[in-house]
């Protein structure tokens, strides 16, 4: 014995209202959709009209194909039955509907639905359905071919059927529909799609619908998906992690204002408004069905956005620079994962270097190796000295920059990157000749004695620029060592013990104060007969070099800065040595 499933309508309505549709508001969309489909079914030359009125009840009338009594029994009384599928059960291309459940959404706001309909050449029929699952069919009053659906509001749902709400919802879902729609006398359909408007009106559209005045508007066209539309480029920075939704229409009916998955992740800077005849909705009609077609469409749109970027680069680099200025954080964040964005950054994003602003591509063409300082402090410390020796240096200290340089070198075997360590520079410093070295020895050992307690080593080298008297250089190992000893001092006994055991493995090359023998002041200081004055001078040079390189100032350094400054002042101002006038 074989039986058929029984369906409890109340269960189905609950399922629809709470789980399938985001809000009961969608009933307006489903009604509009049925009216448009009925008009489409008449034929391409039929001048379709849809009229919605509100009041005690909501009425929506179309001059579409209508239904015969037999069709009413077959289509309206069977959930899941649709006239919009072919014999094999596939959705027919020209229609919006396909599932055979849309009319049920009206039960989200109404307890009773009446469908008054007439097919050309047949008699009028009145079908009445109730939310408890009953329906009846009677002969209807005389009427033109077409259909009128009437909803009697459910108690508590009246607000979904007020004039204001219905006019708003009909406009939201139906403004681009290819048939004439009015709601309580208001013209709902606008006639033109926004992306076909002249440039100034597109901007106004974006301002009112998307909430921003676009930086630029890019036309989109994907014939394979029957897709036309526009991408509006955001004029202000956005966090690329916040997925912005797109306004998507399917066969001119709004799917959602917040569709995801239409663009690849890297295109976070654009909001699209598109219409497609081929992309498919999910059953809730609030999202796009994620299939091969959507993937191909995404790729095609990505190509068009990339094309826009490339065009900007060749025809209007100034605007591309503006674009990157707005969206650089997002572009750079994505470039850490996306090779195309990485190339964009390489070619077009100017980074700070000691030779002015240069793109990584320009820098590489000029200097071969992408030599960079990993922090802004290191960069400041090294930029001038490196520049004077014609060593190009990139400031990798801005967010993502050092990582991007490293990644570029990782993905492209032709690119070489090198982090410049401050002590690497000493190899470019020329040692002074043996005779001078010998002459300077007493001065140097006196200077070393003064700086020993600060853990700093004093050396003399010749380097450019000659105007720079002294440079404080910390190697990575030395910086680590400093941090290590600082933590050792703060740690409790247990951790102190562990750190002590480790300390033997920590290299302890000391930071260096490099005095520049090319600098006239340094020569004069080194030649001073007055040992006390020379020591004061070395201490101030040490303090000044620390400040110049933005190094942390420890309490001992601060004390030294004060005493050396006051000491020098004392020597400079006449009347010292107890000779003050009384
Ligand atoms: N205004 C109308 N004019 C003519 N036929 C209609 C009208 N409204 C509904 N119908 C008929 O009733 C059937 C069921 O409608 P329903 O809205 O439930 O499903 P659908 O539109 O086929 O699919 P979907 O669930 O995707 O909307 C339709 O296939 C159509 O044949």
Automatic annotation (TrEMBL):
Leader sequence segment: none
Binding site residues for ATP: 30, 34, 62, 147
Source species, domain of life: Bacteria
InterPro entries: HATPase_C_sf, HATPase_dom, Hsp90_fam, Ribosomal_Su5_D2-typ_SF
Pfam hit, one: HATPase_c_3
Keywords from the UniProt entry: ATP-binding, Chaperone, Nucleotide-binding
GO MF annotation: an example: unfolded protein binding
SMART domains: HATPase_c
Ranges for domain Histidine kinase/HSP90-like ATPase: 19-157
Family statement drawn from the similarity comment of this UniProt entry: Belongs to the heat shock protein 90 family.
Protein name: Molecular chaperone HtpG
Organism: Actinoplanes regularis
